[in-house]
Design goal:
alpha+beta, 6 strands, globular
């Protein structure tokens, strides 16, 4: 991609609102292959300290630095699925390498 701009989570959503929703398991749907994996990923997310998760969300998605597109250091990404925000977070290999959490409320 030579022209265009990257859009980050912080460009289209309030990070504090996203954090609050992610920390309430009633507000998220875990997009996993099975229920056991979904539960493990949900627990992983809920055990991330708020300060760390806030930092991850603020730095989510690709960004441009010195004219080059860079990946987020924490491996956190976001996208929209039918007007719902989905957050992708790196998790332990044993529980899938990454977890996707869709905000439903």
């Amino acid at each position: 991609m030579e022209k265009g701009s990257s859009i980050r989570l912080s460009d289209y959503a309030n990070i504090n609102d996203v954090l609050k929703k992610l920390k309430d398991s009633n507000n998220i749907k875990v997009l996993a292959k099975n229920d056991e994996l979904a539960e493990a990923q949900r627990n992983f997310l809920l055990n991330i300290e708020d300060d760390k998760l806030t930092h991850m969300l603020k730095n989510a998605d690709f960004y441009k630095s010195n004219g080059k597109i860079q990946s987020p250091k924490e491996g956190t990404y976001s996208y929209l699925d039918k007007d719902r925000i989905v957050i992708s977070v790196q998790v332990n290999h044993a529980i899938g390498d990454y977890g996707e959490f869709k905000l439903v409320n």
